[in-house]
């Protein structure tokens, strides 16, 4: 039986932002209050990072194989994945870091860095496509551990 890991995201999107206004006019959100507490969303992985014999792959669940049509013609893709091994309440609360963990670097907000410490553990890497076979994409490399959940792929 295939195991699904539900990944919970707390993203501050209001319903008005999620769907277009009925009047087809842009909704002004300048005065709108953010919902409290923020809504929670569920994300399911579409596949997993696999590493073997010095090679790196994105293995998708079989049901997503049709979505790979045309990926073999791309030079590179963006792979979005979940920093699942970095998920704890304390790290999610850290909002400023020294880039690359080096105290000599000036303190920055996490949104101005590529730090894996973030409120939501969504990561992305630009990867060169080496080939596609079935439901598997071979890529040059990715800044993720083996068996990291993949949540999306974009050209």
UniProtKB/TrEMBL annotation:
User: What does the UniProt keyword field contain?
Assistant: S-adenosyl-L-methionine, Signal
Q: Which InterPro entries match?
A: TrmO-like_N, UPF0066_cons_site, YaeB-like, YaeB-like_sf, YaeB_N_sf
Query: Family per UniProt?
Result: Belongs to the tRNA methyltransferase O family.
Name of the protein in question:
tRNA (N6-threonylcarbamoyladenosine(37)-N6)-methyltransferase TrmO
The ranges of region (Disordered) come to 17-39
Specify the signal sequence span.
Answer: 1-18
Q: Which NCBIfam families match?
A: tRNA_TsaA (TIGR00104)
Domain TsaA-like: start-end pairs = 43-155
Listed Pfam families: TrmO_N
